[in-house]
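Q: I'm building a small set of examples for a reading group on sequence design. Run inverse folding on the following structure and report the sequence directly after it, with nothing in between.
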């Protein structure tokens, strides 16, 4: 019999391997990059299992998710402090957590005023970091 996690999903050797590999990554990572890292370590986990496990981790509140400039979902283990928002560089992928208390208050107030409960939200902030802006390869990007 498999154990269940605090999020309520069954642990399996494959899911444990995915979570371990995700925790070993620096910053946000795509499912395909995570799958390649597992394969490079000789861990036999299918790409579909990686995607499914990341969706389970997201539903259980154990990962934060952002999208890259092409819309691909990138994952990072959620810190113990809970839900975070990030500013992500569109050029190099650098991600930095930002203070978003005002966003959290706005979401709670808006949900309360409209009469919604158990509201979740996603706020995505993207820009160009100082390093990329001043780098030799910088090309101005059109504003979104």
């Amino acid at each position: 019999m498999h154990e269940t996690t605090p999020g309520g999903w069954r642990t399996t050797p494959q899911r444990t391997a995915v979570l371990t590999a995700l925790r070993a990554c620096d910053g946000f990572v795509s499912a395909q990059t995570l799958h390649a890292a597992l394969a490079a370590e000789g861990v036999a986990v299918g790409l579909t299992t990686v995607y499914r496990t990341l969706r389970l981790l997201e539903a259980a509140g154990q990962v934060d998710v952002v999208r890259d400039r092409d819309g691909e979902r990138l994952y990072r283990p959620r810190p113990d402090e809970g839900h975070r928002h990030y500013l992500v560089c569109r050029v190099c992928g650098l991600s930095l957590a930002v203070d978003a208390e005002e966003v959290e208050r706005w979401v709670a107030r808006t949900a309360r005023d409209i009469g919604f409960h158990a509201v979740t939200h996603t706020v995505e902030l993207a820009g160009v970091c100082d390093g990329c802006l001043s780098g030799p390869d910088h090309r101005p990007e059109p504003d979104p």
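The chain has five helices and six strands.
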